[in-house]
């Protein structure tokens, strides 16, 4: 089964509503691509956390700034980019939420959940200097059969 | 579905039956407000029934941790019961089973309050 789309790009406002919108879009694409309910949920949640990160930290809730959501299919995986207009960050600088001293913190688990719910998470510097979160999820096996790769 | 909560009391334990999502925005704000009000009313034994909470994100988890520390800070106890699989999974992978007192059922939870 071929992926339902090759590439989807959506520019989101820096608003709380964008979190649900982005999650819903990615869940629908993932469902159409053949992911099971549990994997669709995990992908949706990873994207939710990514957009929350862009909304809260990257764009600091500045409504003048935008969040760019991109979904594309590369070989045997679905790839989601979430790009903000902040000043970027390094994954290595994010505190480990599982460390004993961080367990009672009320924030700081979003990046961890993105990592937990995808196969790969990377952060690069976007074109405007903000963070470009790239998360990948391997397509269900039946989707890559016969793709010639 | 937005988070909704109804409060009942058994002996001196305040039980809040939540339903919906605990996520960034109204859900987490509602949880925070509920806990603050219960503490302000003098409740020190609080049980959160999460049987109908089918979704929680990192903001919701943070809010649960905040609820726990607020109640502990007021010399009280906060316990959880009837976690759905998704909520349980999140609490498990974030290592918060070592923090929260998760009870198997309501009767056991009521007995466990000192």
Verbal overview:
The complex is a heterodimer of chains A (149) and B (114). Chain A is 34% helix and 25% strand. Chain A has 149 residues and is of the alpha+beta class. Chain A starts with 6 loop residues before the first strand and ends in a 5-residue tail after the last helix. The longest helix of chain B is centred in the middle third of the chain and has 16 residues, at 58-73. Chain B has a five-stranded mixed β-sheet. Chain B has a single domain, classed as Transcription Regulator spoIIAA (2-Layer Sandwich), CATH 3.30.750. Chain B has 114 residues and is of the alpha/beta class. In chain B, α1 (26-40) packs parallel to α2 (58-73). Chain B is globular and about 30 Å long. Chains A and B meet through α2 and α3 of A and α2 and α3 of B.
Strand order of the largest sheet of chain B: 1-2-3-4-5
Secondary-structure-based class of chain B equals alpha/beta
Terminal CA distance of chain A reads 14 Å
Radius of gyration of chain B: 13 Å
Q: How many discrete structural domains of chain B?
A: 1
Query: Quick one: which chains have the greatest interface?
Result: A-B, 20 and 21 residues
- How are helices and strands ordered from N to C of chain B? EEHEHEHEH
Question: Can you name the CATH architecture of chain B?
Answer: 2-Layer Sandwich
Which structural class fits the helix and strand makeup of chain A?
A: alpha+beta
Fourth CATH level, the homologous superfamily of chain A: Histidine kinase-like ATPase, C-terminal domain
- The proportion of strand residues of chain A reads 15-25%
Order of helical and strand elements of chain A:
EHHEEHEEH
């Amino acid at each position: 089964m071929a992926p339902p789309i090759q590439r989807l790009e959506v520019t989101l406002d820096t608003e709380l509503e964008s979190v649900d919108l982005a999650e819903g879009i990615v869940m629908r694409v993932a469902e159409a691509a053949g992911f099971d309910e549990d994997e669709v949920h995990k992908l949706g949640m990873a994207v939710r956390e990514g957009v929350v990160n862009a909304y809260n930290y990257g764009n600091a809730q500045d409504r003048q700034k935008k969040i760019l959501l991109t979904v594309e299919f590369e070989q045997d995986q679905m790839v989601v980019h979430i790009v903000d207009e902040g000043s970027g960050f390094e994954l290595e600088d994010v505190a480990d939420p599982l460390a004993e001293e961080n367990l009672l913190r009320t924030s700081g688990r979003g990046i961890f959940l993105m990592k937990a719910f995808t196969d790969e998470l990377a952060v690069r510097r976007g074109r405007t200097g903000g963070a470009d979160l790239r998360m990948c999820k391997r397509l269900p096996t039946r989707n890559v059969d016969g793709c010639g790769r | 579905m937005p988070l909704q909560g109804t409060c009942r009391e058994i002996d001196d334990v305040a039980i809040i039956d939540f339903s919906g999502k605990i996520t960034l925005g109204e859900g987490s704000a509602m949880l925070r407000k509920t806990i603050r009000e219960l503490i302000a009313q003098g409740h020190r034994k609080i049980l959160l029934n999460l049987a109908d909470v089918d979704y929680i994100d990192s903001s919701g988890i943070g809010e649960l941790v905040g609820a726990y520390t607020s109640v502990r800070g007021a010399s009280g106890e906060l316990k959880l019961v009837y976690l759905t699989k998704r909520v349980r999974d999140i609490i498990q992978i974030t290592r918060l089973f070592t923090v929260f007192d998760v009870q198997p059922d309501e009767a056991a939870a009521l007995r466990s309050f000192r």
